């Protein structure tokens, strides 16, 4: 527990929202420009990375060695993982997809949605969206730990903050 750290939720959330949306609005604008082929992806990716970068910047510029040590411990200490949560981590995405497909059926969705595709069925530019989804999940997890340590008291469970 990092008790001597002054938490700054207003700074974190204001910086995160402003900078993230600045990149995303720029990316959205560029996505409609024909001559800027693919440049919008860079801005969208930067917007995705902003919360991760801001939380890490706040941690490593805090001059608080306990906060830095706690953050590193949470990243590399595998004993902090609760084994009973692992099935949830691996099953939540497939279960969500199945429920989404089942909900779409009464509204005219095709049962063929349950068939596996031969290749990537959609992409952003030339990059399969699955890569962006995995990158998003990884960055969100890393940002969650950083945000938890920079914004909230250390005794507040991270799950309730995400």
Question: How would you describe this protein?
Answer:
With 162 residues, the protein is mostly helical. Helices cover 61% and strands 2% of the residues. A two-stranded antiparallel ribbon has the order 1-2. It is flat. It starts with 8 loop residues before the first helix and ends in an 11-residue tail after the last helix.
What's the total helix number? 5
| Rounded mean pLDDT score | 78
Q: Characterize the overall form.
A: flat
Q: Describe the biggest sheet?
A: 2 strands, antiparallel
Unreliable sequence segments: 158-162
Q: What is the CA-based Rg, rounded? A: 19 Å
How far apart the termini lie comes to 19 Å
Strand arrangement, major sheet: 1-2
The helix/strand class is mainly alpha
According to DSSP, the number of beta strands is: 2
The arrangement of helices and strands along the chain is HHHHEEH
What proportion strand? Answer: under 5%
Helix content: 55-70%
Write a brief structural summary.
It is built from five helices and two strands. It is mainly α. The longest helix is centred in the N-terminal third of the chain and has 23 residues, at 9-31.
Search tags:
single chain; 162 residues; flat; two-stranded antiparallel sheet; mainly alpha; 5 helices
Write the layout of secondary structure elements.
Layout: H1 9-31, H2 39-60, H3 65-76, H4 86-104, E1 123-124, E2 127-128, H5 129-151
Antiparallel strand pairs: 1-2
Helix pairs in contact: 1-2, 2-5, 3-5
